[in-house]
């Protein structure tokens, strides 16, 4: 049952890629469509682990060095959702901006 749910969820999730390098997230801001399910692919290019943390998105996940991690979010109401690296909170910072579909495509 869980597998069926996940496969149907994945069919509707759009992918967005983040890179963690030198304790910074690239890009630091991602525009996404509001009210859609999303899949964040986060590639940690640093030699140390980091923890993706977001109170706004209610998500946290350890990002192991040299690996790509997946975090599912959404659907999100229009707005700004901050995230940060818990081990480097002063540098590893970013924002997901959920906008109406026409604005997110730009």
Automatic annotation (TrEMBL):
Residues 5-98 form the EfeO-type cupredoxin-like domain. Coiled coil: none annotated. This is Cupredoxin domain-containing protein. It comes from Pseudoalteromonas shioyasakiensis.
């Amino acid at each position: 049952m869980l597998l069926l749910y996940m496969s149907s969820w994945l069919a509707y999730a759009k992918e967005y890629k983040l890179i963690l390098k030198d304790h910074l997230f690239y890009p630091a801001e991602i525009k996404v469509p509001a009210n859609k399910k999303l899949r964040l692919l986060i590639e940690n290019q640093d030699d140390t682990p980091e923890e993706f943390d977001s109170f706004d998105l209610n998500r946290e996940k350890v990002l192991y060095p040299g690996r790509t991690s997946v975090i599912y979010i959404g659907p999100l109401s229009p707005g700004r959702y901050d995230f940060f690296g818990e081990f480097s909170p002063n540098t590893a910072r970013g924002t997901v901006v959920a906008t109406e579909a026409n604005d997110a495509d730009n």
